[in-house]
From TrEMBL, chain A:
It comes from Ruminococcus turbiniformis. InterPro entries: BP-dep_ABC_trans_perm, MetI-like, MetI-like_sf. CDD domains: TM_PBP2 (cd06261). This is Carbohydrate ABC transporter permease. Its main location: membrane. Coiled coil: none annotated. SUPFAM superfamilies: MetI-like.
TrEMBL record, chain B:
The chain crosses the membrane at residues 12-31, 73-95, 107-128, 157-176, 259-285. This is Sugar ABC transporter permease. Coiled coil: none annotated. It holds the Pfam family BPD_transp_1. It comes from Ruminococcus turbiniformis. Residues 69-285 form the ABC transmembrane type-1 domain. Keywords: Cell membrane, Membrane, Transmembrane, Transmembrane helix, Transport. Belongs to the binding-protein-dependent transport system permease family. The keyword Transmembrane helix applies. It is a multi-pass membrane protein. It is found in: Cell membrane. InterPro entries: ABC_transporter_permease, MetI-like, MetI-like_sf.
Amino acid sequence: MKKDVKVSGIILKIVIYIALIAMTISIIVPVAWVFMASFKRNAEFIGKGVNPWALPEQLQYQNYITAFIDAEIGKFFLNSVIVTALALVLLLLFALPASYALSRFEFRGKKILNAAFMAGLFVNISYIVVPIFLMLSGANRALGVDFFLDNRFILALVYAASSLSFSIYLLSSYFKTLPKGFEEAAYIDGCGYLKTMVKIMIPMAKPSILTVILFQFLSFWNEYIIAFTLMDEHSTLAVGLKNLMAVERTATNYGIMYAGLVIVMIPVLVLYVCLQKQLTKGMTLGGLKG
Amino acid sequence: MNRKRAQGRFVFFCIAPAAILVTLFVFIPTINVFRMSLYRMGGITNRKTFVGLNNFKSLFNDTNFLQAMQNTIAIIVLVTICTIIFAVLFAAILSRSNVKGKNFFRVIFYIPNILSIVVIAGIFGAIYNPSTGLLNTFLEAIGLDFLTQQWMGNQRIVLYSIIFALVWQAIGYYMVMYMASMAAIPEDLYEAASLDGASEMKIFFQVTLPLIWSNIRTTLTFYIISTINLSFQFVQIMSNGGPNGHSEVVLNYMYKQAYGASVYGYGMAIGVVIFVFSFALAAIVNKITDREVLEF
């Protein structure tokens, strides 16, 4: 009897380890393989008897140079940096004052405003991306300009708008936890409302601000469908990569395609390695996915 | 009095920019989805004719739409079930049992969640490639040649290939979420259970699972919403509905109609149907999973 329990315990343990290792392999191997493939020459991908598991014959770093310059991945990379940074700045500029006012002041219509911002949480961007496109192209036509589409600033603005509800929700629930005394002390010292907010309250909300930046960095950097719909020449990296994938697959220029994949992955992976603790902790704080 | 007015002005200038931005880029487009679904519009002329519910009527005679709907429902159901099983099991293993390297596994399992959908599509392109793909060559190497497949080319298999990729990317995210709610269960409940001689299996089913049930229920809504969304982006990049519509999902069909074919009214009618469908589904699921909440 006792022995049975022990044996079944060992078997259970073995099964558990097999499951854990299988899942680990299913993640690490494909990702590592893409890194390896990005150094292969084209001949190592096509033709009969090619073994995709073989190591590269030589480190064909030329793939990266070609991807960066000829396939314009460098340009897309720069666009992604610009759009992501701009969107983060805009998001904080809009979200911080709003969440501060919504959480620390009493005024008429507060409930309705809170509910309206919460309602925004339920609107999925995939549904409204076409109406946004139509609105922007309509604005172009009405004003006879070519400004609203394929514009990095507008894209950043749309990103900021699409994540405002979530950020306000997260930031204002943090502001609510701060003690009331700080503002009163500041007012007595002669600080105005604006100064109190900028100099005293916002610095205290740093942990939640960092969570917002971290999550929205990932989602802006990785975002695909809005950029694909609204952008053309000034596209971001994800869209550039998708186009590269389509082109390279028919031209069967795989090495460059995998180099492009690596270029998209690296900033995210580096960030993750540095900040994975905050990321998984912050996730349970927000408990929501965009 | 003056102070009150100053405060009112301050609050107004804090909130107004955000409110305008959300109205402009979230609320108005959402209203437009509903409004445009009642019109026939688009094409080169861009003329707008009010057609009432006609778009919806033709929708239910559109076999492409019905197939997309069927695929979407299959994807939602299968992705949700598979992800929950794996995520809850891994969460239980990593938070309860004494396996080595828990932290390592947690960090690795979360990686798919931080990758762009485009990167994941690229990775699965490499895995599913019929001639030089990782999966087929691996099967050949271990002597299981008969299992090799045209993973994205076979009409009967393509949907499952996409489901697999969706589950692969979702497990880590939900696992971390379930781990957080398992960490909140007080230790003495487990001690009491094991003093009573309950096996690990029994503890899992009788203690852990009931106590994280409300958390699982919440995530069911996330599954519905995010699977509809992610399956669209994934299909859009990987197969665009092919072969022969066998991997088509509703949002991608909407996108093709509205953005690709410029049949805006019809496309938006599809959007309305999915919108209503997802809310109804979330409400139903919420209702039928309602259990007495166990407190600890």
